[in-house]
UniProtKB/TrEMBL annotation:
Organism: Candidatus Giovannonibacteria bacterium RIFCSPHIGHO2_02_43_13
Transmembrane domains' residue ranges: none
MF GO annotations: carbonate dehydratase activity; zinc ion binding
Taxon lineage: Bacteria, Candidatus Giovannoniibacteriota
Signal sequence interval, chain numbering: none
Any single Pfam family the record assigns to this protein: Pro_CA_2
Listed SUPFAM superfamilies: beta-carbonic anhydrase, cab (SSF53056)
Gene3D superfamilies: Carbonic anhydrase
Annotated InterPro entries: Carbonic_anhydrase_sf, Pro_CA_2
Identification of the protein by name: Carbonic anhydrase
Length: 146
């Protein structure tokens, strides 16, 4: 083994300000960084996945959904996470959808976020865990809380 980067990470255990489920689309990475800074989130558990919260709203692959719900559960149990943040974004390739206008696209993603939130709430409740869940819709001009 050859060390390629020398860096001293903290051994101290931390509490997570948020478990964030965000799309891995790099066009929204700078927005995520700005969001974390503006919300003053110091310690986060970040789950980056194609479509972000889509995995909880659009039930296609149960094993995938189970895996990512399990990641949220681990965040809450291991790091005493204070809240879950779910995100979807405009023009998401993971959905493979096109829309006639901006309003219909916004309505679609708003419904997806509502479904994702209900799914995660039900899962956490089944594990006797209760923490706030926030939902956000990202566009090419900013981030909107839903």
């Amino acid at each position: 083994m050859r060390q390629i980067i020398k860096h001293q990470s903290s051994y101290d255990h931390y509490e997570s300000d948020a478990c964030i489920v965000w799309c891995f689309d790099a066009r929204f990475s700078a927005l995520l960084e700005k969001f974390i800074a503006e919300k003053e989130l110091r310690n986060i558990d970040l789950i980056k996945i194609a479509g972000g919260a889509r995995v909880f709203a659009t039930h296609e692959i149960e094993a995938e959904e189970d895996y990512f719900r399990g990641q949220i559960e681990k965040s809450v149990k291991l790091h005493h996470t204070r809240k879950v943040i779910l995100m979807v974004h405009q023009n998401c390739g993971a959905y493979g959808k096109t829309f006639d206008d901006t309003a219909s696209e916004e309505n679609f993603y708003k419904t997806e976020l509502e479904n994702a939130k209900k799914s995660v709430e039900a899962f956490l409740r089944s594990k006797n865990l209760q923490i706030p869940i926030e939902t956000y819709y990202a566009t090419f001009d900013g981030l909107y809380q839903v």
